[in-house]
């Protein structure tokens, strides 16, 4: 079983935007 750690990538604005828009987070 894969465990995904949902860490907010606050160090990268583009990654943060992508994370916020990711419906599977």
TrEMBL record:
This is Uncharacterized protein.
């Amino acid at each position: 079983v894969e465990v995904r750690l949902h860490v907010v990538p606050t160090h990268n604005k583009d990654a943060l935007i992508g994370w916020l828009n990711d419906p599977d987070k």
